[in-house]
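Retro notes, structure queue

What went well: the backlog is down to a handful. What didn't: a couple of records were mislabeled last round, so from now on we paste the full input next to the output in the thread. Example, using MFS transporter from Nostocoides veronense:
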Amino acid sequence: MRLCRTDPWLCHSSAMTSAPVAPTDSPDYAANARFIRPWYWYDWANSAFVTTIGTVLYGPYITSIAKAAACPGQDSDLDCATNLHVLGIPIAPGALAPYTTTFATILSAIVLIFIGAIVDRMERPAKFLGLCAWGGAISAAGLFFVTGTRWQLGAILMVLATVFLGSSLVTYDSMLNQIAAPDDRDKVSSRGWALGYLGGGLLLAVNLVLVTMKPFGLTTGMAVRASMLSAAVWWAVFAIIPIKGMWDLRNAEKPPVAAGESVVGGSIAQLRNTFSDLRAHHPQTMLFLLAYLFFNDGIQTVISSSSLYGAEELKFEQSQLIALILLVQFVAFFGALIFGRIAARVGASKTVLGSLALWTGIVAAAYFVPEKAFIPFVLLGVAIGLVLGGSQALSRSLYSQLVPHKREAEYFALYQAMERGTSWFGTLLFGVVYQLTHTYRLAIIALIIFFVIGGFLLSRVDFREGIRQAGNTQPALI
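Corresponding output:
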């Protein structure tokens, strides 16, 4: 009767008859708890790339490279009316960064669904985590060599790093279901995100000094390139901790590979049934993914385009933007922990819905920030920091409850196609609106639609039913 006191839903007659018990071959959470601490460290490792490169430096830097290529000899701070061309398609230099992110996400969406099925069939997932993490770090390190007018190299390397990041996160996120019991996932996920913000913030603080002070006679360009290189090295070095710490974590028994069939071939065969199974047997999971597609697109586009908006529309210096993102990082550390505590009281689903209402207000306010008005922009940054970590961490733990047992990586591949640093439609809309209007204000206000649609769809998800459909244990609070 303890569960009846913590959640009356579980005492309803239909719930008591239909809610399943834990699968007989479910992970031994007590034994796997030793993997939680090293698991946290991959958030610490990859957040340096997401923050220093993806959020702060890449957008403005590749835009300056693109403008130098399109309008040689022209002051890079001025508008450049000449277009770049990719396969004959004209691209405004100011739209290159969001278009690159869009392409990387579309490619990831294709690649990651195969990656997820492959990871589900691997005995030792930490090995694949290492391959993807170090592949991404090497690609990110290559950005150091993007100079002059080499915008093509910068775009290609960013695409590769993004795909490698997504592939590693498919593996990383799927491990959550093996190491944390259903009632513990909000807490574990929130702490991982919080540690990631702390690690990314610490490196960004160093890069702030490097870009602002330009020691040793560094130029601005060299300081930016050195900062991006430091993020790549950080990612590669700290990834050793989770890879080594979780090396002994084994996947649960997976469907066997047929005789004469490779792991890849078996994974492709497995994928043939994924989407039909999702629609026929897991409609609540599918509805959550659809909601997440929209509201996460809005979140990721705000994150990836914030420095571009501040630099190009509001005319802030690079050092100001790095300082603001640094503030957001440390506020987000506390925000993730605070939202985790709120979720423990009212449930993760209600907490995420509340955060989307706050995101809508933040984007609307960003439209009205005057040029060079730094204090209002700082206040918006603090607001973003408070809701950022909580909305992302709790979305991950919510989805983990809806994932069918033994298909964790396959289903998290669908989730990761829409995850951090990437956006299917948000960056595309942002780039198109800018190209048509040549103002980032209309581009940023257009993102409200993603939070409105995503919040509406999320409110329609029946999480209890979705957990039952997935065959998982019901948590006390959802």
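Agreed that this is the format going forward. Reviewer comment attached to the example: Strands lie at 84-86, 89-91.
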